[in-house]
Amino acid sequence: MRLYSFFRSSAAFRVRIALNLKGVDYETVAVDLPGGAHRAAEFLAVNPQATVPTLDDDGTILWQSLAIIEYLDTRFPSPRLIPLEPVSRARVQALAQLVACEIHPLNNLRVLSYLRRELKLDEAAVAKWYSHWVAEAFGPLEQLVGRWSGGRYCYGDSLTIADVCLLPQMYNARRFSCDLAPYPTLVRIAAGLDAEPAFARAAPNLQPDAR
Length: 211
Ligand SMILES: N[C@@H](CCC(=O)N[C@@H](CS)C(=O)NCC(=O)O)C(=O)O
Hints:
- The protein is α+β, with helices and mostly antiparallel strands.
- It contains 9 helices and 4 strands; from the N terminus they run E-H-E-H-E-E-H-H-H-H-H-H-H.
- A 4-stranded mixed beta sheet has the order 2-1-3-4, covered by helices on one side.
């Protein structure tokens, strides 16, 4: 498999974690997002949405991190990241989507670039925007995880797609100096995840294109 990735992309970070958890070998194809490589014709021919992660599984091209993770979970069921039991499945996906569908779309590169270039916001205003949307989702996430976590992971006693989404968002929140004091449960769970090899190996600073 080949994973089109950018070291700082939190969506690609999710897929790197899932591939590591499943023990799937893959080759990284670095896409320089700040340099605009994702908008070049060569990459648009692979993924017209111009986003990473994009997975090439022997010529089958897939994108959207949650869809890729579900694909991997079906192809390589162990360890299962999306539970089969209906209630757990819905709840775990709700936690994952709170990060991937509520925070990330408002805070990704093209949105922040629009704020800077078109709306002429300075870095302090961009950081305020970023922190606002993190807080909007981390507040309810802290409560839900507090209710549902068995202690070590976001939901019950098993690692799930919710954990796979949490750690990359935590990295990004730190990068933008968000106040994490109101989220002690999320901080504690993320610290534990960070120490697990599949998560640690997926970290931005260990990727071949890290700089
Ligand atoms: N919902 C998509 C989001 C993908 C996405 O926006 N990825 C970012 C990097 S984290 C990207 O490629 N950004 C390019 C841009 O914003 O121009 C997913 O989960 O894969």
